[in-house]
Amino acid sequence: MIKGDGMATPTCPQCGSERVWKDGVRYLADGSVIQRWLCRDCGYRFSDPSKTSKRKNLHNFYRRVGGWEDQPKNSAKAVEALKELEETEKRAAGATEKSTEADVKGKILEFAWWMKKHGYSEATIERRTRLLITLVNRGANILNPESVKDTIAKQDGWSLRTKVHAVDVYTCFLKMLGRKWEPPRYKPVKKLPFIPLEEELDALISGCNKKTAAFLQLLKETGMRAGEAWRLEWIDVDFENRLVKVTPEKCGEPRTINVSNKLLAMLNALPKVSHKVFNGSLRHFARSFRRQRARIAHKASKSTHKQDNISYI
Fold it and tell me: Which pTM does this prediction carry?
């Protein structure tokens, strides 16, 4: 609380009340002044905590460097000594922070290697390590389960499913450390999936660039997972017999699927720069797809609005 004179009013250290009065001042040997306070609820008298804590730190500083009896009597020198103390504490805190940051990065790398040793897929390892990094960037100390709980709870922009995934990932991380925790309980609401009409899918595919259109057409005709389609190689495509061989992921089954001439033509139009049909990062590709989808949706909404205006006229 701030009084009319601009001075912050402390709370009573005895009972926690904010109903305190000024009750004189205390003059120190170095010439500085500390405000005294009186609690109106419990009658406890105390000094300004912000000043006394600094004074205590200064006292400890002089004890470390040569005894309290050698303290400077001049207040300016006392301030300089206190600044020196604060700088020393900041440097120590910075070193601790850097050490903690290095420990966290080391644990994340250790977690990635632990998952690799236990047979997790590369995609799973990437997603889980990226989620841990996200938690760290948002203020979580992944070595402290309570800090992780707080950080997950504060993510209002996350869906319940994302929070459940974050809890599962951190549980796996603690398993690697040989530790346990009481995970928060998030129960996502199950909803029916949105299934677009075929003409809507065709409009989306036709509005994307050549690479994205071929990828989406492949998903539409084969029902592949995105990861399965992204790992497709040219030797998996039989242009003569119009077949595509699917290498499964996530414990799926290998299969061969008949495809249309349209899809084969779209695949054949792609540049053959490596043994893979689609090159680059799937994560970056997904980001590009979302931008294209948003552009197409915006264009479609403007067209619909224009048609409505024409009908109204």
Answer: 0.56
